[in-house]
Amino acid sequence: MDRQDWVARPGRPLRGRVRVPGDKSVSHRALMLGALAEGETRIHGFLEGADTVATARILEQMGVRIEAPTPGVRHVHGVGLHGLRAPEGPLDCGNSGTGMRLLAGLLAGQAFDSELVGDRSLSTRPMRRVVDPLGAMGARIGTADGGVPPLRIQGGQPLLGTDHVLAVASAQVKSALLLAGLYADGRTSVVEPRPTRDYTERMLAAFGWPVEWSPGRAALGGGHRLVATDVEVPGDFSSAAFFLVAATVVPGSDLLLTGVGLDPRRTGLLEALRRMGADIEVLAARSRAGTETADLRVRHAPLSGIEVPEALVPDMIDEFPALFVAAACARGETVVRGAAELRVKESDRIAAMAVGLRELGATVDEAPDGAVIRGPLSRGGTVEALGDHRIAMALAVAAQCTPAPVRVRDVANVATSFPGFASLAAGAGMGLAEEPAPE
Ligand code: S3P
């Protein structure tokens, strides 16, 4: 991917209506379950991001026919639980931890060998968290030194249903184990230290697989079948998060975000921003096929720093880059603790945000599991997104509050989760322009 920068600066108040792209987590899962189901699954609102497109390509490499009649739509012709074919080469997950970890569970149960590879960032991310518990079920998966990708998965291993008690709150790990559990003999159960997003459980049930779950627990047995169903993907709350913060911190803003997914395991940022003083109204809430969706009206409001409750951390795990920006624009200090997982995302997000916000004049004291953040953002400058989509978007939002322009370097990976962010943001009022990176 070519290196790309943004030049961001205070623009106009954010106004009008914005529809963010489809949810990444739901799009990945819809493809995977659609592929393993019997019949044709029609997905609407599919995220046309590099991460989800990589997952689609991987499934195609294993013989699944996926049509894309129009952008945002996929018709997945399911091959049934045992219908995948051995791929010819390595399967490239690109930047996507979700793709790799979920597919590791799914591939552990296949009759054929496979290899999962990723880009430079993904190749440094911890995989033992899935490889070890899958190993306890009978899977044989090799990693590179240090427990990082590539993952070499040996096919033809009988899997045994196992009770897992997870050390980290991770929907990716839980989902990998449940997907392996589809192929296991007996019952697979997962207990989490804190509840995480439950899309895999919900979607398995929608595809007709018996699953029992409650916050923090999930269990299923092997030996059933998945039946194709249609999936309506809501707008991604994690993408909406950047607009929620931008409209909150830019005076005069009044923005409507339409069709945003409001799963309670995803909306911790809403709670945190409200505690800081944000003015966000939930309008036209509706529930369709078990998915909560609403429009969010957000108006500018002055913010005050808070201590983010640790219990909220898994419910806003992807929203901390945006929260850090809100904190740097707030009066007083904001304390984040219990969020060590941020250090093993697409980048070390605590370090990346600390360095970026300090460059713009904020004070950020790092801790191993969080930070204390104090504003204001008092200058412009050049900051590094480190190829991490959410760091790039967060720093562009930060630049809406700086007295001078900010160059955000290395932003091309925004296309993994939010293609078109720059033009949507500029259309809503943010000062943001794409610039080729200097040689
Ligand atoms: C995801 C789970 C989260 C999140 C990621 C998507 C998922 O990761 O950070 O962006 O779709 O299951 P962890 O569950 O590992 O925290």
How would you describe the overall organization of this protein?
Its EC number is 2.5.1.19. InterPro entries: Enolpyruvate_Tfrase_dom, Enolpyruvate_Tfrase_sf, EPSP_synthase, EPSP_synthase_CS, RNA3'P_cycl/enolpyr_Trfase_a/b. This is 3-phosphoshikimate 1-carboxyvinyltransferase. Pathway: Metabolic intermediate biosynthesis; chorismate biosynthesis; chorismate from D-erythrose 4-phosphate and phosphoenolpyruvate: step 6/7. Its main location: cytoplasm. With 439 residues, this protein is α+β, with helices and mostly antiparallel strands. It has two domains: 222 residues, Alpha-beta prism (UDP-n-acetylglucosamine1-carboxyvinyl-transferase, Chain); 209 residues, UDP-n-acetylglucosamine1-carboxyvinyl-transferase, Chain, CATH 3.65.10. 28% of the residues lie in helices and 27% in strands. It is built from twelve helices and 23 strands. The strands form six sheets. It has a four-stranded mixed beta sheet. The protein has a four-stranded mixed beta sheet with strand order 2-15-17-16. β4 and β5 form a beta hairpin. α1 runs parallel beside α3. It starts with a strand and ends with a strand. The relative contact order is 0.16. The mean pLDDT is 97. The site of shikimate-3-phosphate has 11 residues, from α5.
